[in-house]
Amino acid sequence: MSLEDLPVVEFAFPGPLRDQLVAAILSGAKTSTSGLVLEYERENQPLPEPGERAAVIDSRGRRVAAIELTEVRVVRLADVDLRHALDEGEGYRSVAEWRAGHESFWHSAEMRAEMGPDFTVADDTLVVAERFRLVEAGQDRP
Question: Fewer CB atoms inside 10 A, N or C side of the chain?
Answer without folding.
Answer: N
